[in-house]
Structure formats: C-alpha cells, structure tokens
Sequence to fold (370 residues):
Amino acid sequence: NPKPLAPLALQQRVLPSYRAPFFDLLAQAAGGLHLFAGQPLTVESIVSADPAAMPHVQIAWGRNHHFRDPSSRAFLCWQSGLLKWLARIQPRALIVEANPRYLSNWFAVRWMHRRGGVVLGWGLGAPRSGNPLERAFRLAYLRSLDGLIAYSQRGAAQYRALGLQNVFVAHNAAAPRPAAPPPERPWPPAQPLTVLFVGRLQARKRLDLLFRACAALPADLQPRVLVVGDGPARAQFEAAAAAHYPHVRFLGALHGEALRPHFAAADLFVLPGTGGLAVQQAMAHALPVIVAQGDGTQDDLVRPENGWQIPPGDLVALTDTLREALSDPARLRRMGAESYRIVRDEINLERMAAAFVEAVEGRPSPTPSP
Fold:
C-alpha cells in the first residue's frame, strides 16, 4: 500500500540556487515540502537559493558546523537545529542526503524510525572507494535507511551491488520539460560552426583544453567559440584563449531569456571538464553535446545518438571528437533533435519530481523507452 506522503521533509547540507526550481516542483507534486538546509563554506563558491524562488517550499535554516572542507577525506558536518525542526513539523517521510559524513543525519534517521517514519537517502551512488573502515561506515549508514534515490542508473546499480533494497532512480535534472519547440537553425549552417560553453568559470571546467583542441583542428574546421559564465578562473581562461585560440568570445554571466539566443546560435555544446548542469539546458535547445565523463549522471543523458562522452583531461580525445563532430553538420542536427527528445520525454525536472514522489510512496517509476 502507498505510504502517506504529507508532510514531506527534506534535508540538505546547503541549498544551491540551481536546485530551487526542482524543490518548488517537488513541493507541488507532494502537496507541500518542508526543507532544512545550512550555509556553504566560503571556499565552495556556492550561490545559495533565494527563498522567493521556491514559493511552495517551507524553508528552515540550520547552522552548519564543518570539520575540514568537502574536498577533504576527513570532512565531517553537523547541522544544528535538525532534530528540533523534525520535532516541530512531525514529518511522516524524510529524505536525507545519502552521505554518512553528515553526522546529524544519523540522529535524524533514528528520530524518524522511533516515531514510525520513513527515511530515504538521495545520492550519487556508492563507488568502491576509501579504506575498509570508511566503506563499513558508509554501508552502516546506507543500511539504516528505508530506501535510496539515486541520481543515475549507475548510482542505483552501485547501491544494489551492496545488497541494498528499495533503490529508485530520479535522473538528476536541471531543466524543465521544454515548453517551446526546438529552435529553427538555418540550413546550411553558417560557417564557421559555433561551439558553446555555459557554466561557472572554475579551473575544473578545463576550458584551456577546449581552446587547445580547437587550435589543433584543420583550419577549415576551426569553430567560433562562445563562453557564457563568470567565476574565479575567468582571467586564467581569457589568458589561455589569447595564447592558444583567439576565436573566443567571453560573454560574461547570462541567465534565463538572455541565454536563449546563444543556445539558438550554437551548433554544438562542449563541457570539457567536470560538473556543469547546463548540459541539459543545451539539450533542451536541441544541441548535441560533448561532455567529460563524471559521476554517472552523464551516462543516462549523453548517448551515442545525441553526443559524446570523453575521458576528463584528455586533450587528444577532445581534439579527435571535435574533429569528428564538426566535420558533419547534418549529423549534428540529427543528434540535436535526439537531445531535445531526451529532455522532453525522459530526463527533466517534472519527471524527477514525480520519481521522488513515487519513491516516497514506495512504487517504482517505469523506465521510459528510448
């Protein structure tokens, strides 16, 4: 029998701005959502969400006590106020981050179970990493949960490989189902073709590799490159462009409607480094994509029919893939059409919210056919 849903509670260590549309949709799908979060460390450069962007969510702010930063293997976090928040709202179901290093979550799970509540974990997966003690610590936490919601099929497979039950998949989405038809791009396309990058300019995005790869292409394939975004590595990337590939325009940070004409003008989206949720935005604008392999979320999103996955940090692979992609504009258009279909039919914020509700209610979401 489906478990009662409301009130639904959700814990997050931090509340980044890019998650606001999802949490507001989840609140509407679940008939309400109570959300508890703290503030990030300055070193993380995370922009916190504006509560006004989530009118359907009831937000409570706790205080994060961090030991080390999240990049450290010794990182731990305690969130003050979490148990008081639970006592105040008395949720029947709680979703927590599936990270055992958030020590207050262990107590939240125990608090919920003592009162007959359901607790689900939400996470990337459980790759075989760390020493035996770290793996045992993680497994004990995961086993304390009533179920898990994975970002991807790869993450779900990792949880199941540990013998964990009640594993669901909610594909990690950053874009809503497209409301508009795909942009009409001219045919034949203007030359040179346009390569687009959208994202925060951090060193790990490896735009220097993109510029060097473009410079290594034959002259008749060298594209125009548009870079949308700002961040701490902007000066570094501008210097790299000046040194290796002057056919680059840095447009600064753009959002919402201001991004639309640049997606429409592009022929190919490239993410040469790690991270980056703009891949789905690009796909919603019918763009084929080249992305570096990462945590598994790309496996479900980027397929041979709509793009390429390459090893991170591999200049030769990026150069060869750009050469293959830019040499066949007609194929790029076909792949872009498939990108649009994937975001319209399979991986979008609406389906992600529905998958969360189905997981809490204990009924699996059917996997859509490609």
Observations:
- Residues 8-173+348-361 form a domain with the Rossmann fold fold (CATH 3.40.50.2000).
